[in-house]
């Protein structure tokens, strides 16, 4: 694995947190990036909150800074993963030079050098709503074994081809969703055929492990897999599904009162409740309390009736979590900015020092654009964040430090490893990550760069964001570029399982009765 890769930042989970390396995941010791300023901006004093601390020893043995993440006094079911992104705002590069003083420009040295640590759950087995969702009215179809007879036949097939079986258990697929399997609510036809095949409609009747890793967001995991299983006509479990905010459930150990932003209606409040956050505020609660806070908002009676106003001058919001795309930029940006400039998250106050008293802000993913039904891609959370960063800089003169989850962050890929291992356990009784993992994605800047850095095989498909030539120039897929997901997956299977691997279950090949007499109707398959 190259020095720039994720694999270089493995750490020993058994060591005390303070001894683990943090930062400089892609920066050699003598790189100019090492001049990155240590940040002197603790969000909480260690003595106040039992903070993990602001400066830590990096893998290179030097002290570096990061956004402070306060430690909750209770049990710790989380691990922290160093961020690939600098915690500094991205907006500076988009702003006119005059907007930054020379001293501020000096403070910003590099992008993507290192940043804060991102807590993720230690184990994915924390979901209280773990379940498999079958496509409506299709029961156990979709390539799954349907009967005792078929079970016997697949067992026979697998006995005969034991080497192929081992190889099939030693590979796994990680699917991006939008642009690979679906476009919004629209099926990409090869997506269904691919999942049918991986769910057992293949020569061995074997389930080839696969999980879903999307930067999508905005509703609880169960609701999203229900929707996807319907579109893809295949069963999907919450235990094989990661959306951008899924690993952010770890933050419930760190913060009690949070502002949750984005998504339709109150779906993201539901998400936060399901993740275990104790006290969840959404922008509507604040607008209902004081409509003048958002002067351009037309607040309906229905919205007022469903909100939960209280006196926000008497409580502190501890962190801002942008879970999904904002449905009302003006209101959300105003409220976020008010909170970022307040004294430790108390509305109605303005901090004397906007930096040391600032509460942290987290984004579930960083995609600038997202393909939709519209002819050209639409702005996504990354664009919203950059807008906020620029506003914050213009209003305070300071860079906004922030944490961004989602692909291609290391934390997200580490979490994916946990999910792959436990899904392997579920399917084949072996809790481990197979040696040959294939990421299938449409976005070179997210799926492919992340997969490459994590040491996975990467396949770029032409059904989504990527519309280029032979391969992406900046982040080429290492296994190749394919017309669609079926072509990518079958190429990977041929490599791992042999050119003769059959992509269709054929009972007649295994059943002597059917094989010899063609008495198909006499045998249940
Ligand atoms: O950018 C937002 C999201 O819709 C992307 O989803 O599945 O392509 O990671 P996905
Ligand atoms: Mg995609």
From TrEMBL:
Q: Where is this region: Disordered?
A: 1-55
Task: Report any Pfam family annotated for this entry.
Answer: Hydrolase_like
Q: Which domain of life is it from?
A: Eukaryota
Please name the GO terms of the biological process aspect recorded for this protein, alphabetically.
glycerophospholipid biosynthetic process
Recorded GO molecular functions are:
hydrolase activity
Q: Which residues form a coiled coil?
A: none
InterPro entries the record matches: CDP-alcohol_PTase-I (IPR050324), HAD-like_sf (IPR036412), HAD-SF_hydro_IIA (IPR006357), HAD-SF_hydro_IIA_CECR5 (IPR006353), HAD_sf (IPR023214)
Q: What is this protein called?
A: HAD-superfamily hydrolase
The organism encoding this protein is Trichocladium antarcticum
């Amino acid at each position: 694995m190259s020095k720039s890769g994720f694999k270089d930042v493995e750490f020993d989970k058994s060591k005390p947190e303070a001894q683990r390396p943090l930062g400089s995941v892609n920066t050699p010791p003598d790189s100019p990036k090492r001049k990155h300023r240590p940040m002197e901006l603790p969000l909480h004093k260690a003595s106040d909150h039992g903070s993990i601390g602001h400066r830590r020893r990096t893998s290179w043995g030097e002290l570096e800074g990061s956004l402070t993440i306060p430690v909750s006094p209770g049990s710790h079911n989380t691990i922290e993963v160093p961020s690939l992104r600098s915690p500094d705002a991205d907006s500076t590069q988009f702003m006119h030079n005059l907007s930054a003083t020379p001293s501020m420009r000096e403070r910003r040295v590099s992008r993507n050098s290192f940043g804060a640590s991102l807590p993720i759950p230690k184990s994915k087995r924390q979901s209280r709503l773990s379940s498999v969702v079958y496509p409506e009215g299709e029961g156990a179809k979709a390539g799954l074994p349907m009967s005792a007879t078929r079970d016997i036949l697949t067992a026979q097939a697998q006995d005969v081809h034991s080497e192929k079986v081992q190889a099939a258990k030693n590979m796994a697929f990680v699917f991006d969703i939008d642009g690979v399997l679906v476009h919004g609510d629209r099926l990409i036809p090869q997506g269904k055929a691919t999942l049918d095949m991986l769910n057992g409609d293949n020569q061995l009747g074997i389930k080839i492990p696969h999980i879903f890793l999307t930067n999508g967001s905005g509703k609880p995991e169960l609701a999203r897999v229900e929707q996807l299983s319907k579109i893809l006509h295949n069963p999907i479990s919450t235990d094989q599904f990661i959306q951008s905010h899924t690993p952010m459930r770890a933050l419930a150990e760190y913060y009690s009162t949070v502002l949750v932003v984005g998504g339709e209606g109150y779906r993201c409040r539901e998400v936060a409740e399901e993740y275990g956050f104790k006290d969840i505020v959404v922008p509507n609660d604040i607008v209902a309390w004081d409509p003048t806070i958002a002067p351009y908002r037309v607040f309906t009676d229905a919205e007022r009736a469903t909100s939960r106003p209280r006196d926000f001058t008497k409580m502190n919001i501890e962190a801002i979590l942008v879970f999904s795309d904002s449905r009302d930029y003006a209101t959300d940006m105003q409220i976020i900015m008010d909170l970022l400039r307040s004294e430790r998250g108390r509305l109605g106050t303005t901090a004397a020092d906007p930096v040391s008293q600032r509460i942290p802000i987290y984004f579930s993913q960083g995609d600038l654009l997202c393909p939709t039904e519209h002819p050209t891609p639409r702005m996504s959370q990354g664009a919203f964040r950059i807008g906020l960063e620029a506003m914050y800089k213009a209003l305070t003169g300071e860079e906004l430090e922030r944490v961004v989850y989602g692909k291609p962050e290391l934390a997200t890929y580490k979490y994916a490893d946990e999910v792959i291992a436990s899904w392997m356990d579920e399917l084949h009784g072996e809790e481990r990550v197979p040696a040959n993992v294939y990421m299938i994605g449409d976005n070179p800047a997210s799926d492919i760069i992340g997969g490459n850095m994590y040491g996975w095989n990467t396949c770029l498909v032409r059904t989504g964001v990527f519309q280029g030539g032979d391969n992406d120039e900046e982040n080429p897929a290492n296994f190749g570029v394919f017309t669609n997901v079926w072509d990518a997956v079958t190429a990977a299977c041929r490599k791992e399982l042999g050119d003769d691997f059959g992509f269709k279950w054929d009972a007649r090949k295994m059943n002597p009765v059917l094989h010899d007499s063609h008495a198909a109707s006499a045998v249940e398959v």
